[in-house]
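Researcher: Last one for today. Full complex below.
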Amino acid sequence: MRIHDGVFGVLLLLLAGFVLREATGFPPMPGQRFGPSLFPSLLAAGFALCGLLLLAGGLVSERGRPLASLEGWAEKGARVVDVALVVGGLVLLIALWQRLGFVIGATLYATALAGRFLGGRYLPALLVCAPACFAIDWAFRRLLLVPLPQGPLTGLYW
Amino acid sequence: MTAFETALGLVLEPYTLAMMLLAGLFGLFVGAMPGLTATMATALLVPVTFFMPPVPAIAMLVTATAMAIFAGDLPGALVRIPGTPASAAYVEDAYRLTKKGQAELVLGCGLVFSVIGGIFGSIVLALSAPVLAEFALGFSSFEYFWLALFGLSCAVFVSTGRPVKGAVSVLLGLLLATVGIDPTAGHPRFTFGSVELMAGVSFIPAMIGMFAMAEVLRWVTSPRVIEDLAARQKLGNVFRGQWRLLRRYRWNVVRANVVGTLIGVLPGAGADIAAWVTYALSKRFSKEPEKFGTGHIEGVVDAGTANNSALAGAWVPALVFGIPGDSITAIVIGVLFIKGMNPGPTVMLHNPEFLYAIFIVFILANLLMLPLGWLAIKVFRQILSIPREFLMPLILVSCVVGSFAINNSIFGVGIMLALGLLGWIMEANGFPIAPAILGLVLGEMIETHFMTSMIKADGNLLAFFERPVSAFLGVVTLAVWGWILFARLRRLGRARALDVSPAP
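Model: Here's the assembly. Have a good evening.
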């Protein structure tokens, strides 16, 4: 995804304004001339400067370019769906993390992605992804004692 | 028992050696897969190392990265896709040599000269780190502030693309580092009422997101056609002809080792930049510069040596000052802090056995590269045949687990997702990622030393230049920025001159 430098410039200026506004709300350190706001304020100044440079540079060198373009990869609509699936699937996995548990959630996510990348062949995807997710669960939960949620499978396996 | 003997005992424990072997195989696998980087190998290993004692944990990271950097040469030579960015500089030569039927020579060269570079860098690390650490014991907050700022400035200076974009990347990293409880006054900043954010933006999920997840997204949006030259290559004894190469290019190897290690030591610049710079130097000083890019082994020798020597070099500032030399050591510093082994000059006083253990691990990892690298060359065809269509979703699942494991909280996965998207968009638009990670790692250190210095000096900025080392570092840092500005103005001037010159 190619975004015009000028857009980045504007976004950075907005970010600078936001950081500065937040920083001015931090209380000063007792008995000192400096407080928690000093460093973020300096960063805000840096963002503002970079934003101005990008805006000016973008307006000169990228004149006539669209504000955002999906360049090449997105001309194939399938790739846009792929990206949406990667991101949307991950959002769903986060939302249903406790309810589905790791093994079910991760298997569904990985199978959906692999099946899609394989051109709709979901069975081979499932046959590879399910044991792989079980293996990851075993390694992390049993060996490394990471409390990955089990969801509906609680108590049914290791 | 001396510290060295203790270190030797720790490294030679069967558990540590077994972990090194496993990490070596993992590093070879990741490096050999086009599109997966050594940094990604390190980031994915971090959750595994949480649960280990410090020496095996660090041994795993060192071994995996050394192997991954070498293994990056394999797909570069056989399918023209550098396995890691550190192999990109000489991919054209390596691939063309393969096309000429010299795959055996070029892969053997990658292996042998990676080992030479790695061992040279390790020796420099072992010799220089204790000396520098002793020197750094006299540093105050002023010196540390400048040193950290110098590191970030170098990251901007050496980053590819426009410096202003490198600067934005650094600033973003620093801003992320300010989230949470402020280190001087204890006031929560940018937490928006979230208890999770009070602890700050966790470094590991950020790293996994910006490197690993962003790479998966890049793969998803890139063409998936690989010209399979690997299937047509006969690979016999890859060590044949290497001695002749070493004798012929001995001075190139010396130069590549020195330049590679120095670039590695420079904060912010790692194996990728070392490879590009030495390749350019090799061409510049070669007797046959016209052959570069057409399948000439000289550049492969030079850059292949330099990228591995830079790897060890990057550990010098990381261990001595706690300032990462590259994105890999940025991850390592995070791991060292988690293990309670705060990197810095006192590491030599408090944990000398740990420092010696790292030196031994480096030498051992590079020696291990010979048999494992040979094995990787032999089975590369099989590694390459693993469909990325399966691998990428499973990498994403590993990223999720790794981000969860740091605090056993799904919030980490959210951070990974957000920063993965940010990293992907940034890189697609020419904003380098490594400076952001350096900013995130160094943010708290810079702010703490800056605030301490400001309070000590009561706001007098001249105090930052009053101590000799501090003044030197300050001037050097300002000179880096001056040079960036000067180069930009000169480029603008040239562009303007071209604009106003009349058409012929």
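Chain A has two domains: 2-69, 73-153. The mean pLDDT of chain A is 88.
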